[in-house]
Structure formats: C-alpha cells, structure tokens
Automatic annotation (TrEMBL):
Listed GO biological process terms: tRNA wobble uridine modification
Catalyzed reactions per annotation: carboxy-S-adenosyl-L-methionine + 5-hydroxyuridine(34) in tRNA = 5-carboxymethoxyuridine(34) in tRNA + S-adenosyl-L-homocysteine + H(+)
Protein name per Swiss-Prot or TrEMBL: tRNA U34 carboxymethyltransferase
Group of enzyme by EC: transferase
Described purpose of this protein according to its UniProt entry: Catalyzes carboxymethyl transfer from carboxy-S-adenosyl-L-methionine (Cx-SAM) to 5-hydroxyuridine (ho5U) to form 5-carboxymethoxyuridine (cmo5U) at position 34 in tRNAs.
UniProt xrefs under InterPro entries: CmoB, Mo5U34_MeTrfas-like, SAM-dependent_MTases_sf
Length: 322
C-alpha cells in the first residue's frame, strides 16, 4: 500500500485543507480497487530499492541525484532491474546515481519551451493534471514551488513516482495522487495549474477547462499544452477511431479555436507562447520503453502525416489567467 499520511498532514495546514473532507475516502477506495499482482510487484520493487542518502540533487536543470561516493556497478545493476520492473517509462529523463532512465519522451524539452513564459513558481502551490510519472512535478519543485501536486489515475505512474521519490531522499515537496480531474472538488486553491497532453483525450474539452479553472485561485495561472492543427477560428479536428494510433483522441483545435475556448470559459490574458512539431528525437523507443512510438505512428512515406492521414502531431502551449 502507498501511505498518503504525509500529504494529509501537509494540506491540513494550508489552503487545501478542505480537500480532506473527501480525499482520504477516495484514495482508500482507489487502493482497494487496485489490488492486483502487477501493482503488488511494483510496490515490491519500490520496497527493495535501497535508501541512499543524496549528496547532490539538481531539480532546476534536470532531475538528477548523486551520492557522495559512487555506488558500485553491482548496486547500479540491481537498482536498474528494479526500475525496469516498472516499464514502460514514458516521461523523463531521470539521472539517478549514475543510472539514466532514458524515457520515451524528452519531457525536459517541453519544460524548457514553457518555463521562460510562465509566472515565477517560487513559493507556489501548483497542480499538474495527468502528470504521468511526475517528471514535471520535480521540475516545478526545482523552479521554486512550495508544493507540487500531481494527479493521474494510473497505478504504474504512482509507483514510478514513488520509486523516484525514494531515490531522491523521500522529498515531500511533490506528491502524486491516483485521481482524475473529475474527482477533485472545486478547490480554488492552486496558484498555477498545468494540463499538458490531456485536453485532446477529453470528450468535452470545455468541461475540462472549467474543471481546471475550478482548481485555481482568483488571478491564478493556467498552463495548457495540447495538440493543435493549422486553421482558423472555426476549425478543430475530430479524428476517427484513431489518431497517431491513439484511440482516445476527441478534439484537436486550431490555435485560434483554442484561444476562443479559453475565453469562452472565462479566462483572461490568453496567449499562445510556443508551438512546435513533435520530432522523432523528442518521442521515440528506448530500452526503457520498447513498444511502438512516434516513428511507428507516422506515414512511412510522408512524415508530415500520421499513419491515418491526419496532420502529424504539433503541440502548442497556452497561458491564461483566472
């Protein structure tokens, strides 16, 4: 079992305290429904990771931890195997005592694209919706966040996060909760809310935007990254059964459409701060994620199209204020 007691103690003393009215019961129900062999195997891998005292930690420029004395090759191999028990690793990379988790996504590149444009996170309480393994939570802490909370209902991502947290010395500034955004009450308590790579997976994108808005303090900042298409104010792509082999892609807006959606949901100071086509260097197979990746999802004869004939993935970052 994962113990969320430390998180309860932290939020009991801050503006998230009203979350305690529902959160313990939600997480208890989640734990009861996720008792299976794989989850227990992942928990066992975390249990057998060594407790190493970090000597140097860098969360500002990367997610890197080093010990005072290099750990042995044998110990590196043992840690590597325990971490590989939790494959696939999709979001990273992580550099842990000489072990490099080369994840499918270079999530550090996304972070470097958005960090120059967002509000200073120093002393903030922040939320990352659909946070995967929690890579960006650690970068938020590195950028000065007082408390970084991630939500993602997948048991694997919770275990990956807890494994990284243990190797970082049990840092309590970041926490991952296995919940979806629809399970959160209207907290109105986060200074910044991130939603990166989630919107196009929602059947109702406007409902998602309202859910994000309900988590922000007045004047708080939304940082939203999503797939976009080229087009005018009235255009959005609604793919068929699959987009780039993903089944659950519902709406991919043009940039003007996305800005319009944000305005319709009551956000102000809306702007797009970055747009980039996803490259085969940013998303690819590695020894830590060995199944199909972006190269397998594009037309082999025309990389500007997906295998289904849609425009290849292009992502944009939007900033907006509640």
């Amino acid at each position: 079992m994962i113990d969320f007691g430390n998180f309860y103690q932290i939020i009991a003393k801050n503006k998230l305290s009203k979350w305690l009215e529902v959160l313990p019961a939600q997480l208890a129900n989640w734990q009861k429904s996720n008792i299976d062999n794989r989850f227990n195997q992942w928990l066992n891998s975390i249990k057998h990771l060594p407790t190493i005292r970090p000597y140097q930690i860098d969360l500002l420029n990367s997610v890197t931890v080093e010990s005072e004395q290099p750990i042995s090759i044998g110990e590196q191999q043992r840690i590597t195997q325990l971490l590989k028990n939790m494959m696939p690793w999709r979001k990273g990379p992580f550099h842990l005592y000489g072990i490099n988790i080369d994840t499918e996504w270079r999530s550090d590149w996304k972070w470097e694209r958005l960090i120059p444009h967002i509000n200073n996170l120093e002393g903030q309480t922040v939320l990352d919706v659909g946070c995967n393994s929690g890579y960006h939570l650690w970068r938020m802490v590195g950028a000065g966040a007082k408390l970084a909370v991630g939500i993602d209902p997948m048991a694997l991502y919770l275990c990956q996060f807890e494994a990284i947290r243990k190797l970082l010395g049990n840092d309590q500034r970041a926490h991952l909760l296995p919940l979806g955004i629809e399970e959160l009450p209207k907290l109105n308590a986060f200074d910044t809310v991130f939603s990166m790579g989630v919107l196009y997976h929602r059947r109702s994108p406007l409902d998602h935007l309202f859910q994000l808005k309900d988590q922000l303090v007045d004047g708080g900042q939304l940082v939203l990254e999503t797939l976009v298409i080229d087009g005018d104010l009235h255009q959005a792509l609604m793919p068929g059964e699959r987009y780039a082999q993903m089944r659950n892609v519902y709406f991919i807006p043009s940039v003007p459409t996305m800005i319009n959606w944000l305005h319709k949901c009551g956000f102000s100071d809306v702007k797009m701060v970055d747009k980039s086509v996803t490259s085969l260097d940013e998303q690819r197979k590695t020894e830590w994620m060995t199944s199909d990746s972006l190269a397998d999802f594009l037309d082999p004869n025309d990389s500007s199209k997906t295998i289904e004939g849609y425009p290849a993935p292009m992502r944009a970052v939007f900033i907006a204020i509640k």
